TrEMBL record:
Compartments (UniProt record): Cytoplasm
Protein name (Swiss-Prot/TrEMBL): UDP-N-acetylenolpyruvoylglucosamine reductase
Annotated organism of origin: Larkinella arboricola
GO terms assigned for molecular function: FAD binding; UDP-N-acetylmuramate dehydrogenase activity
Assigned protein family: Belongs to the MurB family.
Pfam families associated with the record: FAD_binding_4 (PF01565), MurB_C (PF02873)
Length: 341
């Protein structure tokens, strides 16, 4: 049975800790409950907001609609072949818990994505990635329920149309489906990605040599790095990386390098170069700065934080000021990775 509540605070359901309210709120624990919800005619035309871990949201106002908290659990092996294991997880499964489950069972491919906040259902929507790995590299398929019909549809890798922090669910299919489960194709034989960030250096500090590499060691290294750089949302409100790393043309990058010789850049292989947004923000003097109750984290300029009682409007105002200064100094427009509501 569905327990639809009215005028519910969303503060516990977003990692920024912004106190917005939803006109209606419901928690979904099974796909059948989701289908039942879409049969309620009184909610057919009501705006809907899907909540996972709330780690990619900024509430700039109350939500005059139905907030749907996805809490579908379950992790299972659905099939395997000589090289791969296919793991199906409910949309409400905590992403890091899924990674830990796979690491403990020797299923390789997502260890570099350790400690990313949020739920499994949200992961393909954003095509989450870190340290040289994106979910699309291990994605097999997902199941989603159509809001208008209540029918379940399977989306293949190709149908998800993945790109950098993008998928079909942020564009053509936006607002049309709610993801209920995700299936990943993981490797029985690990292929390690340790050349990104400080993974190799951290492994060395841990006393792990090349010959001792394991997915558990890589996962632990990533966790160490993230904990040293990123604030815990339970202690200070934030949504992790606030902006995408911009991709600019090689020509623009080379021009900027003549003025800013220390500018880092990573060729993407398609005539563009990815520039770390955190470096750009830091060069503009924002690291550790505060505007009202919002600020830029003192250890990682890519992270905006709620310093206590910040409204979504304050977070947005800070973000816009950061964007403006980066564009003025470098001619690069930063695009938010988080969703504004």
């Amino acid at each position: 049975m569905l327990d639809i509540q009215s005028h519910v605070s969303l503060k516990p359901y977003n990692t920024f800790g912004i106190d917005a309210k939803a006109r209606y709120w419901v928690e979904i624990q099974t796909e059948e409950q989701l289908k039942t919800l879409f049969q309620l005619t009184e909610f057919l035309t009501v705006p809907k907001l899907v909540l996972g871990g709330g780690s990619n949201l900024v509430f700039t106002r109350d939500f005059d609609g139905l907030a749907i908290k996805m809490a579908i659990q379950g992790i299972e092996v659905v099939r395997e072949d000589e090289s791969h294991v296919y793991i199906k997880a409910g949309a409400g499964v905590n992403w890091h818990q899924l990674v830990m489950h796979c690491v403990e069972n020797g299923y390789a491919g997502i260890e570099n994505l350790s400690l990313i906040p949020g739920t499994t259902g949200a992961a393909p929507m954003q095509n989450i990635g870190a340290y040289g790995v994106e979910i699309e590299q291990v994605f097999d398929q997902l199941e989603a329920v159509a809001i208008q019909t209540g029918e379940t549809r399977v989306f293949t890798h190709a149908e998800c149309r993945f790109s950098y922090r993008e998928s079909v669910f942020k564009h053509e299919a936006k607002g049309q489906y709610i993801i209920s489960s995700v299936t990943l194709r993981l490797n029985k034989q690990a292929v390690f990605h340790v050349e990104y960030g400080a993974i190799r250096e951290t492994l060395a500090e841990m006393g792990i040599s090349e010959g001792q590499l394991s997915i558990k060691a890589v996962s632990e290294a990533v966790i160490r790095i993230r904990q040293s750089k990123l604030p815990n949302p339970a202690e200070i409100g934030n949504a992790g990386s606030f902006f995408k790393n911009p991709e600019i043309s090689k020509g623009q990058f080379e021009d900027l390098k003549t003025v800013h010789p220390m500018m880092p850049g990573y060729p993407t292989g398609d005539l563009t170069v990815k520039v770390p947004a955190g470096w750009l923000i830091e060069q503009c003097g924002w690291k550790g700065k505060q505007m009202g109750n919002a600020g830029v984290h003192s250890k990682q300029a890519l992270v905006l934080v709620n310093l206590g009682g910040a409204t979504g409007a304050e977070i947005l105002h800070l973000a816009q000021n950061v964007q403006q200064s980066v564009e003025e100094k470098f001619g690069i427009r930063l695009n938010p990775e988080v969703n504004m509501v």
